[in-house]
Model the fold of this input.
Amino acid sequence: MTESNKRLNALAVSDSGFIFDPSTGQTFTTNEIGLEIIRLLKQGKKLEAIISYIDEHYDADGDVIYKDTVQFLSQLKTYRLIDES
Amino acid sequence: MKANVAVTGLNATDNPAPGVAVIRSLKEESDWSGRIIGLSYDAYEPGIFDPHLVDSVYLLPYPKDGKEALLQRFRYVQEREAIDILLPTLDSELANFVELESDLSAMGIHTFLPTDEQLQRRAKANLPKLGKELDLNVPESRTVSDLREAEKVAEDLDFPLVVKGLFYEAYRAQNIGELSSYIQVIAARWGYPVILQKYVPGEEYNLAGLGDGNGGLVAAVCMKKVFLTDKGKGWAGVSIVNEELFETARQITSALKWRGSFELEALMSSDNKLYIIEINPRFPAWIYLAKACGVNLPRAYCDLALGHKPELPQEYKAGTMFVHYTTDLVANVNQLDSLLTKREIHY
Done:
């Protein structure tokens, strides 16, 4: 397991969207869909599966879902919570 | 624990010393039944005036007055207080206590302190050398003895630079003007040499620990500051469990065979490298957080000082927070009278 995956799996995530990283003390907040994406990432899901899940469960344009999901994952990469791959 | 424990560092301003947090950690253990003897260099340290914290307080001669003056004062205090354990918490006093360890022990005052050699190896001026020996990242640092030398070093290391006193205080200088100003401030207060350290941007992390003197790490707690004062001191922080920091602490205690309390100040740079900024030879002012996490390091220090094996959990939970707050203690001017004229207070 990579260092980023370990961090992702160790994240303490509350239902309200508050996220605490116990190894660095960093805190983040996110919305309902952000929480869903983190939950799916912890299950080992990749980009395509995540987009497909959101498309299925939320009423939004496919292009918007794709763009927003990629942007969210990019933010997680910046915080070193997921790998570049 | 039934013991009379003497603790220094009772300052509790926005730049607090560790003494108040150490005493709270000791007194809040369920089996505590001892007395706390506060030791102070200054009659106005806030912790002196809290009768729920200290049973008596004695003023000490300043560290610069030397070890003989200190020893005489301890002889006086010991006749009245029967101290079992001394827990010093200030960098500037430690060298004297290390030198006096056997004299204090002969009086019945137990300590658990590093050796002089251990103290020197982790000193700010020697930290880069220790970093090389242990293959740890330490920001490039130089010691300087005057302003002209500082300007030459600044040309070499380039700005920004962190200007540090031998024991306390640090400022970030962005240019020659700021460097000159900070050097003068620090040299006036702490003397030369002054340390210039290359500034490394990143997130700061801290670890409080206790070495057993045989190379083992008795226990440690990591903390991330979440709110800073304008002096850069942690006003709020949260416990974290950072394996890289623990491993570094194990490596340092093993290499130095560190005996006693310490604090690691570390920094995770933007390219994800862990740098050691300082190794302080005493508990930090945030040490009550360790007790709040169930790892009572001050109590473990006392056990070790008395020759007992401390019982501490090796694991704790991340997410316990501390937040400093200020309040008013009500005292009587008679207390100040007693301190200034008799150099002691008894509650």
